[in-house]
Amino acid sequence: MTAVLDAPPTVVNRPPSTRKARRENRLVWIARHSIAIALAIMFLTPVVYLVLISLMTSNQALTSDYWPNSWHPENYVRVFQVTPLPRYLLNTLLYAVTATALMLLSSVPAAYALAKLRFRGRNALFLVIICVMMLPPQVVTVPLYLMWARYGLTGSLWPLVVPMLFGDAFAIFLLRQFLLTIPQEYLDAAKVDGCGEWGTLIRVVLPMARPGIAAAGLFQFFYCWNDYYGPLLYTSENEQAWTLSLGLASFHSVHHVDWNLVIAATVLTMAPIVVVFFFAQRAFVQGVTLTGVKG
Amino acid sequence: MSAKPLAIRARQHATTLSFLAPALIGIVVFFGYPLVSAVYFSFTRFDLLSAPQWVGLANYRRLADDPFLLQSVRNTLWMVAVFVPVRIVSAIGLAVLLTQLKRGAGFFRTIFFLPALAPPVAATIAFVYLLKPGTGPVDTMLAHLGIDGPLWFNSPEWAKPSLVLLGLWGIGDLMVIFLAGVLGVPTSLYEAAALDGANAWHRFRYVTIPTIRPVILFAAVTGVIYTLQYFDQAAVAGSIASGQATTGGGISQSFGFPEGSTFTYPLWLYTVGFRYHALGYANALAVALFLVAFAVTVILLRRAKAFSGEES
């Protein structure tokens, strides 16, 4: 808390302006808010359009209208009838939940060691992790694919989930940055009370690091939910294992005339993200600010 | 440290290792091993059916006269040259605008940030629809203004700019990073500049920009790396706009639509490896990509040490 009070004045708490400048300021205020509102409309318009189109008939969706002549909420039901959407959804959830849980289980201890334990080669290891994080996944795609093919696991979600059991570079980086902010005194106190390193991590650090862990977990969950490259690579041959992203991308080709259904499916894929975001907004913004990289 | 008995130090090492073991195994198995194999395969002819056959530098010589490679590199460089700066400038603009709002900043921040979370496939489908030539909502709106809208994703000239527009819609993550940077600029610097008679533009140009330079560098380098792996949007936009059958594995048939204008480096790598099964050559492409990405990463680590914590 004291750190916040001692912080130098920043743009947010700029000293109040003189009375003279007030009238001029009001004009500037209006100009700024007008720009902000115009931009907000531009950012929101695509979503509004999509919802409107998803409620049209398939014929009207082909025209240039943007207001439905008649409303067809049953489009959303039909999406479920013409595609195995529940299956895609189940696969996506399975992928995202399992991968997130495994990732946290393996990455939190690693991040703790990198942030709080002293050992030789710590900085070198951290550099390696940053390098792993920065490299395009395409670089190691072919050998990894061959590895999974050798075990007969292509055509399933296993190749996407199993690696998470062994940590994720981005999450380790994010968690380490967060754990660095936990004061050493808490850890020392725990050790004086007879806690080992694992005890300290589980009883002291975990409860304090909840916001950081939440941010890392959310990033992983959303990364999996949105992932297209991974499922395309490993599951495209087996429709039983398709995720929402993959199903959505090919849904269009099967029903390419029915834009209303395609768009309804698109809205359905986005909806959970929006809902979760509104519940977890703070953790998210914190996570982005903390790392400077989106997962 | 060295005064401690050997047994205690051994136990400490064991504890440390127990924390790091999964991550260490992960780095070796899912990064180190495939990276080494990629380098090995890049010197071989390998088609999945028969064993890899050593061919020396043949794959690398092929890189020199591969017209598809040239096209994909050109498209990727175009994206790096246009997409990265446009994203950075727009994100700074939004961040500065947010700091200037005294009311509703949180509300606007939420709205600007939200599209960044939209699944790339969903967002791409949405934009292909919104930018449908002629009858799409955007072209309809342009028609009201008396403007003949372009063909967007169906025109070789406009397909890449359309992808940039799509990218700008999802700019929220970068905006939040710049917001943190801009909010961290000490007011005393602005006051000093104001005393010297600096107007708003001067304050932005000579105070804000130099102070957030590390953030700009960071955004530039991560932006380049993001662009080097640009895959989802280009693949989906090509398949949806072309209207071709694109179920599952066949998706690569519409890569680059129209006329190869959205054909990026990762798309070529995927095509070579998973459609033509020329795995040796695909790995040569991967190694080349690795070298470029690695060079960019080294620049980041050298120049922006602030982001790697205690390293400095």
Task: Characterise this structure.
The complex is a heterodimer of chains A (295) and B (312). Chain A has helices spanning 2-6, 22-54, 58-61, 74-82, 85-116, 122-134, 141-150, 158-161, 169-179, 184-192, 197-208, 210-226, 229-235, 244-254, 259-279, 281-291. With 295 residues, chain A is mainly α. The longest helix of chain A has 33 residues, at 22-54. Chain B is mainly alpha-helical and 312 residues long. Chain B contains 14 helices and two strands; from the N terminus they run H-E-E-H-H-H-H-H-H-H-H-H-H-H-H-H. Residues 306-312 of chain B have low confidence and may be disordered. Chain B has a two-stranded antiparallel ribbon with strand order 1-2. Chain B has two domains: 1-34; 65-311, MetI-like (MetI-like fold). Chain B has helices at 6-41, 58-64, 67-100, 105-113, 120-130, 137-144, 159-169, 172-183, 187-195, 200-211, 213-228, 232-242, 265-274, 279-303, and strands at 44-45, 53-54. The two termini of chain B are 23 Å apart. In chain B, strand 1 and strand 2 form a beta hairpin.
What are the key terms here?
heterodimer, A: 295 residues, mainly alpha, MetI-like fold, 16 helices, B: 312 residues, two-stranded antiparallel ribbon, 14 helices, 2 strands, 68% helix, flat, MetI-like_sf (chain A), MetI-like (chain A), cell membrane (chain A)
Secondary structure: elements and pairs:
The complex is a heterodimer of chains A (295) and B (312).
Chain A: H1 2-6, H2 22-54, H3 58-61, H4 74-82, H5 85-116, H6 122-134, H7 141-150, H8 158-161, H9 169-179, H10 184-192, H11 197-208, H12 210-226, H13 229-235, H14 244-254, H15 259-279, H16 281-291
Chain B: H1 6-41, E1 44-45, E2 53-54, H2 58-64, H3 67-100, H4 105-113, H5 120-130, H6 137-144, H7 159-169, H8 172-183, H9 187-195, H10 200-211, H11 213-228, H12 232-242, H13 265-274, H14 279-303
Antiparallel strand pairs in B: 1-2
Family (chain A): Belongs to the binding-protein-dependent transport system permease family.
Protein name (chain A): Carbohydrate ABC transporter membrane protein 2 (CUT1 family)
Pfam families (chain A): BPD_transp_1
